[in-house]
Amino acid sequence: MVSASDDSVDCNGNPADRSTTGGWFSAASILVVELCERLSSMAIGVNLVTYIHGTMHLPSATASTIVTNWGGFSFLLSIFGGILADTCLGRYWTIAIFANVHALGSGLLAISTVLPHLRPPPCNPSVSNDCKEANGMQMAVFYIAAYTVALGLGGIKCSVSGFGADQFDQKDENEKAQMVHFFNRFYFFISFGTLLAVTVFVYIQDKVARVWGYGSITVLMWLGVAMFLSGTRRYRYKKCVGSPAVQTLQVLVAAVRKRNLKFPSNVQQLYHTQSEETKYPQNGRFSFLDKASIIDEADTANVESGIQNSWRLCSVTKVEEIKMMSRLLPIWATTIMLWTVHAQMITYSVLQATTLERSIGSFQIPPGSFNAFFIGAILLSLGIYDRLVIHLFEKESGNKGLTNLQKIGLGLIFSVLAMGVAAIVEVRRLKVAKSTSGAISTLPMSGFYLVPQFALAGVAEGFVYTGQLDFFLSESPKGMKAISTSLFLTTIAFGFFVSTLLVSIIKNVTADKHNWLPADINNGRLDLFYGFISLLCAINLVLFIGCARWFIRKKAQTSN
């Protein structure tokens, strides 16, 4: 038996045999469950606003808010899933449990769409505005199903990429090189799953039946779970070592407890541990956290006896790791607006598409499928960047392309343009709506006018997403990679929540005048809403540039 050189074990807890565990065969099963999760989540998410508005008959602003809240909680729950995986369940059981939860939620959603008493009756086409909104019981069933899906998504998302990486031994050069290809294929599977979701499965929902759309992704999700479980004996596992999120809380609690203590003149009097392999030099930023490593009278006896209460005393290295993570927060905060733009692509932009002519010959494009242009722009822009731009950089200056912060900045520029273009297109759409009879459900304007805003938003997300992921992983301490990934995912969550907040504020501010976001967007001023978001994105871009100039890279302040 040739054991892996890292601390991997097999399903029985014995050292993992490299010849029979891990590698591409095991990673493939993990990629399949991620493909099914992405396909299921996106098939639900990009077309959910049309179901809430068109079938449940809720106003457009309410429908948008429900979708953005759902998306926000989905990614926010990844933090709690990560804590469970790191502290007690492990990545394998976290994926196995929450993948089944995800499938259960999509199954409940399918059932709720087929039972007549779980949705309101169709609108009466002969009477204007005769649509009965879903009642409390019907919305309760919908929320249970949707948030069960969200819970499953959060649990899978936090662990699946890390468990895939666990199948490769980072201390073996050959397997380490294979792991790089795993992440490339991982991103490809995410994109492929999304593309299938917004084309094939959205079409099934709109043109066949919702129950068939949701039912088919439920079956696929359970097939993915079966494929994942079939690899149980081939996987490599890592033992739970505690959550970095808990360590972060420990430093914060210890620093607050000792906030009134004076800092010693000799830093050697602070708490150091001999077992720490990585040492970080102290820096002056966020110095209030240094008090977590002060040894007071209550700590002295415990330290001498080898007993440490981590909620009272933390080592200098642990404090410095948290301080290094704190440096990332300004960049974290200034990337949230990108995901607010993303939220518009799956809510109001889809509602715009429902009002426009979407036919190509006899084929009519479902409104939610316009996100295919969004995904296509991501793949095309990143393909051009990887195959052309990087080579030009290397030829002209010897650099290997843009830095992660430069990629984020470029993406944020495109986010400003996306919302600006969306506002201009909406001006034209509203002009057509005002000149058309109110009885016409489809305006005499091509839905392809929406393609530029979807494409620009896709380019923006492609650069920001890859730049963010690289930034958070490369600039975080060695022992904090897991929490840095969770930090990255929370930008998506808060981007959705910011969209919810903006919709609520705009509705309240404009309610007594010309309501920007009424139940029917043909009677509103969505152009002004888009323009307002574009302005916020421009302000955010300026703030990001300032934060990027302030940021000190890890290699510039550490000795390792």
From TrEMBL:
Key words of the record: Membrane, Transmembrane, Transmembrane helix
Keyword Nucleus listed: no
Main location per the UniProt record: membrane
Compartmental location: Membrane
GO cellular component: membrane
GO MF annotations, alphabetized: transmembrane transporter activity
Pfam families, sorted: PTR2
InterPro entries referenced in this protein's UniProt entry, alphabetically: MFS_trans_sf, POT_fam
Signal peptide start-end: none
Highest taxon of source: Eukaryota
Keyword Transmembrane tagged: yes
Listed transmembrane segments: 66-85, 92-115, 140-165, 186-205, 211-229, 328-350, 370-388, 408-427, 447-466, 487-509, 529-552
Topology of this chain in the membrane: Multi-pass membrane protein
PANTHER family according to UniProt: OLIGOPEPTIDE TRANSPORTER-RELATED
Family: Belongs to the major facilitator superfamily. Proton-dependent oligopeptide transporter (POT/PTR) (TC 2.A.17) family. Belongs to the major facilitator superfamily. Phosphate:H(+) symporter (TC 2.A.1.9) family.
Protein's recorded name: Nitrate transporter 1.4-like
